[in-house]
Design brief:
There is one protein chain. α4 runs antiparallel to α6. The two termini are about 35 Å apart. The chain contains nine helices and eleven strands. The strands form three sheets. Strands 1, 2, 3, 4, 5, 6 and 7 form a seven-stranded mixed β-sheet that branches. A two-stranded antiparallel sheet has the order 8-9. It has a two-stranded antiparallel ribbon with strand order 10-11. The longest helix is centred in the middle third of the chain and has 27 residues. A hairpin with a 2-residue loop joins β3 and β4. The chain is an alpha+beta fold and about 300 residues long. Helix content is about 30%, strand content about 20%.
Length: about 300
């Protein structure tokens, strides 16, 4: 299962009525934009969030794999080309749309550096279809659930008959719960597989301080989960085995390693404190050739100056 966010705007109504999303294959210059080309990645059962003018207004499930198909006659708004990509969908509209700007503080830390659906000011990026990794999928589903589903708490011990009937008829509930469960399972399985394959590459010990106690070790991504392709997320050479303290420093960009394995320490850490953090500025670790591209990415994109 892979999730996506489709930026529809004025096209939402006609595409929802047709039960599809559709994009041209090429622009006027004969180029294939990434957000159109990504349509080919959609498979049957994949969830899609529908973004319209600042809000996520619906969640759909793909009824089939993406197919190459001419523009449906009902999609009169599409004028760029007649040849394109089509996915048949089962739309489920939200009773309460999710306002992205109002929830952006929770959403923004999960946005990838590349191909993010939203800009830093919380507005939508231009383009059509964007990837939505598991952690972002889970967060969006949690936010949607909070405002769309009734939850019984100490102050709400019973529901009226009408509310119960409305909840029972809500087709969105199983879509949300099943999608959230599958996303969590996929992410949990992926991280376990990643941990099990990273550890032997570093002799089951922290690459910096040689701690070997398994409960104190963590497999850290050099290129974070949110910024990875599906293959990169599970590539053990995108990982580094560190103790919990050094893993926190690495993931926060306070330390990094270059393509030769040399340790680099952010100026945010005072030199007088190096010993306290177990850091030696002359430290060099033995890396695998396949680590280089990931370590260099981390140092360039994640390390604090």
């Amino acid at each position: 299962m892979n999730s996506f966010i489709v930026m529809q705007g004025d096209t939402y109504v006609v595409e929802k009525e047709a039960g599809v999303i559709w994009s041209p294959k090429e622009d006027k210059g004969g180029h294939e934009p990434h957000s159109w080309k990504r349509m080919k990645e959609v498979k049957k059962g994949d969830p899609i969030f529908h973004y319209v003018k600042g809000e996520i207004v619906a969640v759909s499930l793909a009824k089939s794999d993406c197919v190459e198909e001419a523009r449906p006659s009902t999609l009169w708004h599409q004028t760029v080309a007649d040849k394109g990509y089509l996915v048949a969908l089962e739309y489920h509209e939200l009773d309460v749309p999710l306002n992205v700007r109002e929830q952006f503080e929770e959403i923004s830390p999960l946005l990838p550096l590349k191909y993010a659906p939203f800009q830093l000011d919380a507005s939508g990026n231009p383009g059509y279809l964007y990837p939505c990794h598991e952690a972002l999928t889970i967060k969006l589903l949690e936010l949607i659930s909070e405002s769309n589903f009734y939850r019984i708490n100490e102050e709400q011990l019973e529901l009226t008959v009408d509310e119960v009937k409305r909840t029972e008829r809500n087709t969105l509930i199983p879509v949300i719960t099943e999608t959230e469960s599958e996303a969590k399972m996929k992410m949990r399985w992926g991280k376990l597989k990643f941990r099990n394959e990273v550890a032997p590459l570093w002799e089951e010990q922290c690459a910096l301080c040689a701690i070997k106690l398994p409960d104190l070790l963590k497999a850290s991504h050099a290129k974070p989960w949110k910024d990875c392709s599906n293959d990169e997320r599970l590539d053990p050479f995108n990982g580094l085995l560190l103790c919990r303290n050094h893993a926190a420093l690495y993931e926060e960009g306070l330390i990094a390693f270059d393509g030769q394995g040399r340790l680099h320490i952010s100026s945010s850490i005072q030199e007088d404190d190096y010993d306290m953090y177990g850091l030696n500025q002359r430290k060099k670790i033995n890396i695998h050739p396949e680590n280089k591209v990931y370590f260099k990415w981390h140092k360039r994109k994640r390390m604090r100056k």
